[in-house]
Amino acid sequence: MSNIADLIEAYILRRLATQQDGKVELRRTDIADEISCAPSQISYVLSTRFTQDKGFVVESRRGLGGYIRIVQIPINNLVYQDMIEKIDAQTDQGTVRSMVHCLLQHEMVSSREAALLMQVVTAAYRSGMRAEERVHLLKSLLLTLEKFS
Fold first, then answer.
1. What is the model's pTM?
2. Average per-residue pLDDT for the chain
3. Is there a single domain that holds both residue 41 and residue 12?
4. Is it the case that residue 65 has pLDDT exceeding 70?
């Protein structure tokens, strides 16, 4: 038999799966009644199993008329955002090339896209481009990839 946390998680995931936009709004009392659990158990599940690093954003308001809004973020977007945050003026060419390799390895870009990215990265570091311009270029590339993934 599953524990209460597993049942709550499964309930929320089922409700999310029925939504095409990857977003669901629930009420704690409805979940508690459906599963026969305490609202604190729902809070525990939300804080441990529906975290940002697992691809979820949770907005919660307690009290009368309160709700829980859960939005599922595609994992690819999290990867791109993490890479974008790591690129700064001190980021070296090897690090950026490793990022491109990681995208290729996880099939987030095609081999053709990876080859083009590698050429742009090489040119950006060899051309004498100012660090600020290079950072802007690299972040723009990743934002574009994220948008079209």
1. 0.59
2. 90
3. yes
4. no
